[in-house]
Amino acid sequence: xxxxxxxxxxxxxxxxxxxxxxxxxxxxxxxxxxxxxxxxxxxxxxxxxxxxxxxxxxxxxxxxxxxxxxxxxxxxxxxxxxxxxxxxxxxxxxxxxxxxxxxxxxxxxxxxxxxxxxxxxxxxxxxxxxxxxxxxxxxxxxxxxxxxxxxxxxxxxxxxxxxxxxxxxxxxxxxxxxxxxxxxxxxxxxxxxxxxxxxxxxxxxxxxxxxxxxxxxxxxxxxxxxxxxxxxxxxxxxxxxx
Length: 242
Description:
Elements: H1 3-23, H2 27-49, H3 69-80, H4 86-97, H5 117-126, H6 128-131, H7 139-154, H8 162-175, H9 177-189, H10 210-233
């Protein structure tokens, strides 16, 4: 329940209280009070039914995503298996480009999954049979490359569970695997759990600039904790953390 909802309830309570105080001893006023209570109850019931008291969603599945759903599911399952965390990958694309295949960032990241040109060329060279030539503006290629690169990172990281492990992989996707390994080492030296991203490794900085560090820490949090649940709720498949 948010501020608006709490404010409405308080105002209704004040209104009922004032009405009762003004007419307290009179029989007709007692009837009027019950009518007022029924009116307020009906109003609150309608607002509840309409979702006014529900927790607001942090992210909605955009209409642009729907046409890519089948391709993403197929590519994710080819690389990750039938239990692939499809909702996690959908959330990642949502965060990267908002499902805009022609997106170009200010630093030159390209396409649906916002690969830098050098990264596109590198991942294509690692998996030439499945990826062929780099085509970052081709949505099918971009989604295939994303799940393949996420898997490549995931396989090189150890963690307490699948959720923590994908969080590490996402941090590496955003800022580089070398930084993640240095962060894990620093966390261990400080007595933190190097196998846990959330509440542990995410708290340390092995040397990034403040701006890059904050941006990198927000990346797994937003994807796995805020956006992923929306795709799970929309029946896109399981998520690593949901």
